[in-house]
Amino acid sequence: MAPTTQSTPTVVPPVGSPASGATHEPTHGCARCGAPVAMGVGLCERCNPLGLRDVSASQVHGTVIIAVLVGFVLLAVAARLVLNGLGPFPVTLDHVAPSSDGLAITLSVTNEGSAVGQTTCRVSDPAAQGGSVGAFLLSPPIEPGKTVTFTQTVAALGSTVRDFVVECRTP
To answer: Domain range holding 52?
Structure first.
């Protein structure tokens, strides 16, 4: 028989544990090259050889907030320019007739604005106490100062002819 020797296993503590003697501080990637850098540092030594100060978090967030606010202002100005001169759109309900698919509704809409536009008209039943959304009809393009009469068939209001309320909103 072969002689046996007993050995004691050697336990090596993980790197960064207090028993190993080395401390491991958390890191993240350099903003330019991705090399590990300490928390609170944006650029590594290779990308920032002069050791210039990083931009503070408040400066970065402030810049982003200003950019978002400027974007909102530009969108508001663009919307105002696009919608300038549209409407109002007074409407009259000319005729309601039963149809095989519901009701054929005829509307006359006038564009009192200074630009060509179209509107969405909501036709609803005043007797429906909030139970019915009604029907929405999109008008054809209307020249400024002109009136357009159009007919559309809607199924959302049923097929019974009754009194309706119509409103065409200005965008």
So the answer is: 24-83
